[in-house]
Amino acid sequence: MSSFTPIKIGIPVSLTGQFQVQGQQALAGLQAWVNDVNVGGGVSVGPGRSRPVELVHYDDASTREAVRSATQQLIVENRVELLVGPYSSVLTLAAAEVAEYHGKLLWNQGGACASVYDLGYRYIVGILTPATHYLDGLLEAVRIACPEANSLATVKAAQGAFSGEVCAGVEERAVEVGFLTIVSLEFDPLSKDFSTVLAAVSDVKPDVLVAVGRIQNDLKFASQLAGSPMALGAVAVVAAGVQQFGLHLGRNTEGFIGPSQWEPEAGCVAEFGPTGTQISESLRRALGSNVDYPAAQAYAAGVVIQRCLQEVETIDDAALRRAAASLDFSTFYGRFKIDPDTGRQIGRSTLLVQWREGRKVVVWPPALANDSLRYPWRA
Questions:
Q1: pLDDT tens-digit profile of 32-80?
Q2: 7-129+264-336, CATH topology level
Q3: How many CA within 13 A on the CB side of residue 333?
Q4: Topology of 133-260+351-364 in CATH?
Q5: Rounded CA gap, 60 and 82, in Å?
Q6: 151-157 β-sheet, strand order
Q7: Each residue of 310-323: pLDDT tens digit?
Q8: Which of 280, 319, 330, 359 sits a CA distance of 20 to 30 A from 243?
């Protein structure tokens, strides 16, 4: 094979359906990486051997059936040499099943649930922080702002592993740091009226409220909460980490906290690959002003793949999986280190952002924060 033959990289991606906003961001992020490496002469696959990259993608319509079909097509018909997973854990699980059957390594840039790794698949590598750690640092940040805070309420969708894992992680941490009251509430993910669950929250009056469901659940819940007179301490909604939250709530974003896998201002030091500033410029060229972490984590998947290719000088899936298991390094996206047995990401943590005057401000961890967490919520 000629050293100039393009490496085919494929992704099933949500360009329509409930995950289309994040899917379009992820595609733009991966396209930006492809463009950048090709402008730079391609990716290294051995001494003096660089190859350009060609991206193949199909719309998975945000459904498991379409993901399976698209992943099968990428592997069998397009014969992609590298396979990147879709956005969302439920879709990633569907893609991982097909990839594992074919012995094709799946670079998981969009599925945060533990269930992605609990099935014992050997051909998967995690890029992003797992769901149970999405809100790491929240309770510590609250305690710094309000040392007497000791009550937590979690509100989650009654269906879906992601919301359960996020809340379980926060509740476990609450026990560890000595919160005295922990209340768990649920809602129907098809619900559009959160008055009943908001009344239950009002009865508890928690120092910390965490809410997570499907993204449309988060947006509706936050809108209805913002329109209530309720007095609360800290309010974290998982969707508050993305720009879509700001576009939906407008002025009502003030004070909401959310997890973010990456923010341009965080300034992670890259041992390998481009800097955060370079990435920000590249993603803004691709997306305009609305750059979110789904784009960054897809770009990060490309950078990690680049590093693994450099390590083994081959596109063999098994060799790349071994390289990923052995490496520990940092990119603009943060530290990359996986559990060698499961492929789960264990090296990096999410950021916490808080909306202030229409923009996100990094408030955790302290080393990367632009400001401290503001407490209470409506201050």
A1: 999 999 999 999 887 778 899 999 999 999 999 999 999 999 999 999 9
A2: Rossmann fold (3.40.50)
A3: 27
A4: Rossmann fold (3.40.50)
A5: 18
A6: 181-187, 151-157, 208-212, 234-237, 257-260, 351-356, 359-364
A7: 999 899 999 999 99
A8: 330
